[in-house]
Design a protein that fits this description.
Layout (H helix, E strand, L loop, with lengths): L3 H18 L6 E7 L3 H10 L4 E10 L10 E5 L9 E9 L3 H11 L5 E9 L12 E5 L4 E3 L16 E3 L4
Parallel strand pairs: 1-2, 1-4, 4-5, 5-6
Antiparallel strand pairs: 2-3, 7-8
Bound molecules: 1-O-pyrophosphono-5-O-phosphono-alpha-D-ribofuranose and hypoxanthine.
The site of hypoxanthine has 7 residues, from strand 7.
Subcellular location: Cytoplasm
Catalytic activity: GMP + diphosphate = guanine + 5-phospho-alpha-D-ribose 1-diphosphate; IMP + diphosphate = hypoxanthine + 5-phospho-alpha-D-ribose 1-diphosphate
GO molecular function: guanine phosphoribosyltransferase activity; hypoxanthine phosphoribosyltransferase activity; magnesium ion binding; nucleotide binding
């Protein structure tokens, strides 16, 4: 679906935009949403030209419910105090929107100086919640995608490109 070159070009564009937008800020705290964010965050954070810190958070759907679940739980919190910080949540994909919605409420309650969101991919046709990330790499169709950090049953994350797999979503 997306080649190595297309992804690299878009990540550079996003990093330029983010670097411009936060040029006046002392520092940006990038909060990656594990596990899918790990490659995108690595590439994006290295391309930025501003001061940044990296932190991680992890959430999981409750129990064995079929994805996407309506209830999420925090399984690993960030290490840093986000009060007064410029925070950018970075995730690989916005699908139903439940994860990003949960995290913006959770982290928004910690009094950051600002809170924005960045996703590499968005499936506009699958949104269950009205949420618009501040930075979006690509809008994609309603199919299951893998690679560049994204998995299918924990496989294919390390593929350098983004591909589509046949799977009911
Ligand atoms: O918009 P949503 O419907 O909430 O889906 C998006 C979330 O789903 C995936 O994570 P997942 O819970 O599969 O965990 P993973 O990152 O460990 O693969 C993805 O990395 C996003 O965090
Ligand atoms: O299409 C997808 N691929 C991998 N992980 C995901 N999490 C939500 N949607 C997807």
């Amino acid at each position: 679906m997306l080649t190595v070159e297309q992804i690299a070009r878009r990540v550079q564009e996003l990093s330029r935009q983010i670097s411009r937008d936060y040029a006046a800020a002392d520092e940006l705290v990038m909060v990656g949403v594990l596990r899918g964010c790990y490659i995108f965050l690595a590439d994006l954070s290295r391309a930025l030209t501003i001061r940044r810190r990296i932190d991680f958070i992890a959430v999981s759907a409750y129990g064995q419910q079929v994805y996407p679940s309506d209830s999420l739980r925090l399984i690993m919190d960030v290490r840093s105090d986000l009060a007064g910080q410029h925070v950018l949540i970075v995730d690989d994909i916005l699908d139903s929107g439940l994860t990003l919605n949960y995290l913006t409420h959770l982290l928004g309650a910690r009094n950051p100086a600002s809170l924005r969101t960045c996703v590499l991919l968005r499936k506009p046709g699958r949104l269950k919640i009205d949420i618009t990330p501040d930075y979006i790499g690509f809008d994609i169709p309603e199919v299951w995608v893998v690679g560049y950090g994204l998995d299918c049953s924990d496989r294919y994350r390390a593929l350098p490109y983004i591909g589509q797999v046949d799977r009911l979503i």
